[in-house]
């Protein structure tokens, strides 16, 4: 058993943690203020054989801006040695979508400064390495008229060697075997008294798969082909709107290398594979869109009666996931509706289930999402893909 330790702030359901568990790190603290996400974190610690006492101490369900939560963290960590701090403060205020929908471009959103709570913990416990995750919009966000990215780098650089090269720190999950295009800012910091640098760690985070973008440019080198939506979900039971259950017995009839990686051979259950109910109009819409791999504007020309939104403005409002490509970025908005994730099989006339979204995010099949289905979608959309987290954990482990 490895004696390397980590803590996870703004942990969500634990996508980051999952990658570190897989590399043998031991969890000391997870903090999140969403109760359903905390239930999921506890469930997963049980899976990894933590005692009930350890789980009760380690999962702190509360707001990191509050003093009592910080005191709770102090109590659990006391004089323990922390190797790695991971976490991604909520990012709605840095996302371009969030900024576009807010009249003040989210300038007054308190979430802009949650990174300071992360930095407080970082400077208090001084782990050897930290990993900070956020949306790519962080690089251009100007909440108070000034770019926030240089401010974050400056704060982090007091005790840590940090890389601020935008090309280096923008990682795409598709390169790490995740069947999804998801570009995220990953800032890795290494404590200045150690004999390696953040650049060393980035160079060890191995890209194994080429992206569709690289394929177009003919820059695939010796990399493997990206994984697709088909690789991720084709083996799952076919269900119609309103069908499916939270838990069923299930053995895939055939498995590919991806399913092999996220599903243990002797495992015979399937969780969270329950489809939303859709009205007859939606079902028609999904059926035609997926049959033809159309966008809303194509549908508007043929069946204008099925289109309530202006396709010029809502062109991407309805997106059919394509079997032969990686999935588009799984977003937390899924909890409101699944229109960005219409199932490619037109016979199923529906949007994705929580399990299908989790497959696109690279969660193992034995990972159980707790809480209401609405909240489960939110947990999946907010998570760091475990396979990408695992590559980062592997690289860090090499040096510490």
From TrEMBL:
GO terms for molecular function: DNA (cytosine-5-)-methyltransferase activity. It catalyses: a 2'-deoxycytidine in DNA + S-adenosyl-L-methionine = a 5-methyl-2'-deoxycytidine in DNA + S-adenosyl-L-homocysteine + H(+). The keyword Membrane does not apply. Coiled coil: none annotated. The active site is at residue 91. Its EC number is 2.1.1.37. It comes from the Bacteria. One of its GO terms (biological process) is methylation. InterPro entries: C5-Methyltransferase, C5_DNA_meth_AS, C5_MeTfrase, C5_meth_CS, SAM-dependent_MTases_sf. Keywords: Methyltransferase, Restriction system, S-adenosyl-L-methionine, Transferase. Gene3D superfamilies: DNA Methylase, subunit A, domain 2, Vaccinia Virus protein VP39. Belongs to the class I-like SAM-binding methyltransferase superfamily. C5-methyltransferase family. This is Cytosine-specific methyltransferase. The lineage of its organism: Bacteria, Pseudomonadati, Bacteroidota, Cytophagia, Cytophagales.
């Amino acid at each position: 058993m490895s004696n390397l330790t980590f803590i996870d702030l703004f942990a969500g359901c634990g996508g980051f943690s999952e990658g570190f568990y897989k590399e043998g790190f031991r969890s000391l603290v997870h903090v999140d203020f969403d109760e359903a996400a905390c239930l999921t974190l506890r469930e997963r610690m049980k899976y990894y054989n933590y005692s009930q006492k350890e789980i009760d101490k380690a999962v702190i369900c509360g707001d990191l801006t509050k003093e009592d939560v910080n005191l709770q963290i102090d109590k659990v960590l006391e004089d323990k040695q922390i190797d790695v701090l991971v976490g991604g403060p909520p990012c709605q205020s840095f996302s371009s979508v969030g900024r576009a929908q807010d009249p003040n471009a989210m300038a007054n959103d308190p979430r802009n400064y949650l990174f300071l709570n992360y930095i407080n913990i970082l400077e208090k416990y001084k782990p050897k390495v930290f990993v900070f995750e956020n949306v790519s919009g962080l690089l251009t966000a100007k909440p108070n008229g000034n770019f926030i990215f240089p401010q974050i780098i400056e704060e982090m650089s007091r005790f840590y060697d940090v890389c601020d090269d935008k090309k280096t720190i923008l990682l795409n999950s598709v390169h790490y075997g995740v069947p999804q295009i998801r570009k995220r800012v990953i800032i890795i910091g290494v404590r200045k008294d150690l004999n390696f640098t953040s650049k060393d760690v980035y160079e060890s985070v191995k890209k194994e798969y080429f992206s569709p973008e690289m394929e177009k440019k003919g820059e695939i080198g010796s990399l493997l082909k990206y994984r697709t939506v088909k690789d991720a979900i084709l083996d799952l039971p076919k269900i119609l709107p309103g069908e499916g259950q939270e838990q069923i017995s299930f053995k895939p009839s055939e498995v590919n290398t991806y399913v092999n990686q996220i599903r243990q051979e002797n495992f015979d259950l399937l969780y969270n594979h329950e489809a939303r109910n859709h009205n007859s109009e939606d079902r028609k819409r999904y059926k035609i869109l997926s049959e033809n791999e159309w966008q809303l504007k194509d549908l508007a020309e043929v069946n204008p009666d099925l289109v309530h939104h202006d396709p010029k403005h809502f062109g991407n409002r309805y997106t059919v996931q394509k079997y032969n490509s990686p999935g588009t970025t799984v977003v937390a908005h899924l909890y409101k509706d699944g229109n960005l994730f219409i199932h490619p099989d037109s016979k199923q006339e529906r949007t994705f289930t929580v399990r299908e979204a989790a497959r696109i995010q690279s969660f193992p099949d034995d990972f159980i999402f707790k809480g209401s289905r609405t909240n489960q979608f939110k947990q999946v959309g907010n998570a760091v893909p475990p396979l990408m987290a695992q590559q980062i954990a592997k690289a860090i482990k090499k040096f510490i």
